[in-house]
User: Which sequence fits this backbone?
């Protein structure tokens, strides 16, 4: 029973004495279903009844050995207790035919019978036999006290487990310490970044980038609301309140068939279910304060509210004091400034987010909820500095001003519902409206003074991006013992507006609208040892007036050993694209546009995966080998990157030529996850080996070259250990350096069409990080209190996000003798945090 529960995610209900029945066979047994398996083991002494796809009731067979009698009449009635209260879920059984039914929430039952009496059974009431020849409208059952044996919790719920139906990875939010995993916050997205195949090399990003995909290619959905930008605090953590989330499921091998429009994968976030009592969490740390509460509003309604707010002027805490702004350096007449001498920046930010959900459950068969989400961020990155350089024998005073402002917000509202029509059929509904707003700008000036004469060079970049998304989805689900069916339809309305300026020139400006209509279906079938899932999604996109087919195939092979073989093939299309804009500073910004099949191509991916999962007591080993082919890859960049001669009087924007490059991509790799679970100790080791390449007809002579996010190796290792009231957590992360276009190797602007495969490409240093966290749990007035201390990047390693080149400064009078200066966008140095969490 234990092995069946662990390997096949089955749940059994049975009286304890039932399994004392002797087995009639031994050795290896093959069966097409659970009923045949137990019949082979125990003969006709045990009967099975499948309640749904993974819950099975076991009972003694004697009740089924009565002769069958044709039904001649129908018995109805209402079941109540001594207080005249309805009794639901009472088993009503015809003693002649053994046909049975359950009473509903009002205590009503209806059963066609062929005998002269029926048996009424309830776990909390004395059984009763009533005649079928008498009409009794209200039937009373006497309560029977239930004596429960002490419950011993032998193992905690695994904090990380696989969902075999759709190859997802599920993580429990409450099963890890407050300070666990990322050393700053219990952030749900940062936790998922520690899974194999997900990039974890950027402290300043809360995106889910799966197997070489961009963050915009992953669908992040919380309570049925898509989130277009899931970042707070410059990406240091996400805008998803960890106290509000119960669990998350990550899909790396395609989306569930009811979802579409993304080529990378999906992160599905679920908030807590309704509670019968008031519950709340109050939390504070050095960065923000948070509150979450759940309040029952009667038997059928429940309200959940959560919010977080950062403190004003967070930079004063110096928690994220990345650098010292005041830098002064002299250079020899023939020596360029090195990368270590580039200037750093000190960002400042404020944010808040709000979540609400109103649940309505009039019965166990009907559930609806209305959810709301909003987050707002304001980011400022600026510096004013003066530094010295030499031009021949003359001393040059350089005064630089840099301003970077960014403000973004997400707002969403959803209606979700589910109705169980009968034990096999149910219907699900999701309707939402969501929006994303972003406005940012970069301005910089460089004043150079030589022998009392001054020269000024300046530039500015601006970006505005808005997107609105409304959709409705409805589908029917049929679940039986050996198969399941899912069929439905969806419609999505999209609107985007965008504008990109550089100095006085507008590079891009547009407003687009599109509608995506879809039909989808999925059929799962097979024996317990071999299951197939065939799915298809057909989408009609109004901007291209074409149909797009997304087929999918999944299979699982389960043998008698604890080994599972699995595989998947699928194709995905994406209509909301994120255009990567490579500015003159070589940093990359993204903004959303609607694909039109021409200037902005439809994105698509073809994904293959073959893997296996091995379970052995406390161990789980999961290996997936994958191959992805990407079409419609876009990049918006300069055709001639590099610097103009700063001694000329030209404006920096005068000869700027941007264009949209279109190409293809390929990702090949393997993901390995090793998980160990114990009562006090949990550990997970994730390793990814991958190669990500791209090919553009108009870049590098149409040769294949490393993608911007190509990191060959990535290793994450996390631990948690519980010792009494203390919990210690640790995280280790290693990632190979990614490639970047090195402007220090380009003396003058050059056409990137003529670049060879790896020309002017350098790689950032490897990313290395170690985090530690310590929690202490105690009680105040019977309520749980947790104090936490954490240290992010405990070794204080200088990890680099990107190099942002700003100016080429002459160091002497010779041609092509320039020093490149700018900012090194460093990631977080050693960062401490303290937190207090009170549950009431």
Assistant:
């Amino acid at each position: 029973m234990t092995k069946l529960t662990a390997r096949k995610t089955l749940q059994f209900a049975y009286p304890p004495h039932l399994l004392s029945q002797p087995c009639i066979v031994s050795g290896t047994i093959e069966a097409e279903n659970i009923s045949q398996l137990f019949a082979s083991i125990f003969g006709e002494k045990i009967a099975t009844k499948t309640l749904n796809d993974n819950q099975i009731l076991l009972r003694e067979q004697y009740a089924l050995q009565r002769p069958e009698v044709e039904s001649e009449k129908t018995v109805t009635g209402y079941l109540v207790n001594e207080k005249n209260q309805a009794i639901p879920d009472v088993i009503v059984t015809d003693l002649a035919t053994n046909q049975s039914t359950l009473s509903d929430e009002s205590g009503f039952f209806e059963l066609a019978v062929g005998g002269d009496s029926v048996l009424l059974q309830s776990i909390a009431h004395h059984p009763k036999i009533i005649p079928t020849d008498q009409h009794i409208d209200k039937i009373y059952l006497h309560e029977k006290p239930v004596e429960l044996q002490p419950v011993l919790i032998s193992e905690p719920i695994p904090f990380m487990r696989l969902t075999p139906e759709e190859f997802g990875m599920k993580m429990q939010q409450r099963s890890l310490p407050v300070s666990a995993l990322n050393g700053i916050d219990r952030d749900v997205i940062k936790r998922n970044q520690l899974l194999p195949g997900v990039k974890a090399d950027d402290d300043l990003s809360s995106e889910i980038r799966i197997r070489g995909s961009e963050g915009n290619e992953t669908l992040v959905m919380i309570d049925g609301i898509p989130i277009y930008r899931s970042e707070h605090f410059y990406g240091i953590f996400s805008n998803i309140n960890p106290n509000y989330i119960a669990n998350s499921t990550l899909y790396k091998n395609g989306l569930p068939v009811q979802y579409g429009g993304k080529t990378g994968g999906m992160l599905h976030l679920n908030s807590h279910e309704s509670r019968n009592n008031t519950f709340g969490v109050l939390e504070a740390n050095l960065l923000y304060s948070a509150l979450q509460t759940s309040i029952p509003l009667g038997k059928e309604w429940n309200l959940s509210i959560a919010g977080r707010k950062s403190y004003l002027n967070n930079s004063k805490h110096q928690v994220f004091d990345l650098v010292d702004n005041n830098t002064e350096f002299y250079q020899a007449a023939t020596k360029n400034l090195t990368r270590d001498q580039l200037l750093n920046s000190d960002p400042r930010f404020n944010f808040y987010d709000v979540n609400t959900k109103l649940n309505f459950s009039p019965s166990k068969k009907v559930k609806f909820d209305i959810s709301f989400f909003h987050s707002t961020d304001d980011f400022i990155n600026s510096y004013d500095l003066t530094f010295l350089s030499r031009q021949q024998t003359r001393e040059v005073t350089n005064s630089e001003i840099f301003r970077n402002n960014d403000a973004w917000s997400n707002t969403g509202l959803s209606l979700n519902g589910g109705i169980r029509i009968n034990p096999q059929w149910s219907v699900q509904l999701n309707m939402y409206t969501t929006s994303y707003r972003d406005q940012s700008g970069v301005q910089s000036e460089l004043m150079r003074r030589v022998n009392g004469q001054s020269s000024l060079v300046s530039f500015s970049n601006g970006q505005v991006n808005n997107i609105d998304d409304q959709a409705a989805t409805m589908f029917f689900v049929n679940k039986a013992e050996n198969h399941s069916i899912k069929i439905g339809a969806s419609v999505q309305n999209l609107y985007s507006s965008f504008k990109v300026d550089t100095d006085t020139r507008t590079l891009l400006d547009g407003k687009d609208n599109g509608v995506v209509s879809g039909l989808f279906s999925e059929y799962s079938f097979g024996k317990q040892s071999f299951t197939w899932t065939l799915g298809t999604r057909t989408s009609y996109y109004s901007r291209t007036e074409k149909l797009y087919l997304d087929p999918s195939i999944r299979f699982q092979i389960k043998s008698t050993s604890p080994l599972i073989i699995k595989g998947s093939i699928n194709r995905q299309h994406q209509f909301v694209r994120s255009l990567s804009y490579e500015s003159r500073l070589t940093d990359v910004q993204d903004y959303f546009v609607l694909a039109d099949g021409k200037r902005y191509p439809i994105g698509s991916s073809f994904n293959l995966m073959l893997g296996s999962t091995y379970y052995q007591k406390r161990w789980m080993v999961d290996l997936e080998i994958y191959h992805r082919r990407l079409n419609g890859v876009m990049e918006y960049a300069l055709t001639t990157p590099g610097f103009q001669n700063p001694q000329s009087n030209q404006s920096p924007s005068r000869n700027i030529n941007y264009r949209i490059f279109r190409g293809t991509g390929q990702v090949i790799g393997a993901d390995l996850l090793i998980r160990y679970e114990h009562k006090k100790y949990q550990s997970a080791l994730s390793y990814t080996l991958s190669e990500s390449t791209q090919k553009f007809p108009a870049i590098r002579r149409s040769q294949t070259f490393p993608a911007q996010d190509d990191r060959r190796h990535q290793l994450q290792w996390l631990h948690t250990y519980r010792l009494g009231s203390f919990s210690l957590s640790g995280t280790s992360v290693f990632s190979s350096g990614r490639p970047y276009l090195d402007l220090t190797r380009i003396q003058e602007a050059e056409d990137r069409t003529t670049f060879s495969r790896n020309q002017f490409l350098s790689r950032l240093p490897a990313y290395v990080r170690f985090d530690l966290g310590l929690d202490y749990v105690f009680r105040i007035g019977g309520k749980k209190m947790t104090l936490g201390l954490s240290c992010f990047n405990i070794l204080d390693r200088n990890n680099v996000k990107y190099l942002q080149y700003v100016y080429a400064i002459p160091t002497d009078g010779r041609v092509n003798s320039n020093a490149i200066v700018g900012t090194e966008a460093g990631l977080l140095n050693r960062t401490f945090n303290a937190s207090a969490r009170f549950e009431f």
About this structure: The helical segments are 2-8, 34-42, 188-192. The longest helix spans residues 34-42. Residues 33 and 528 are 6 Å apart (CA to CA).
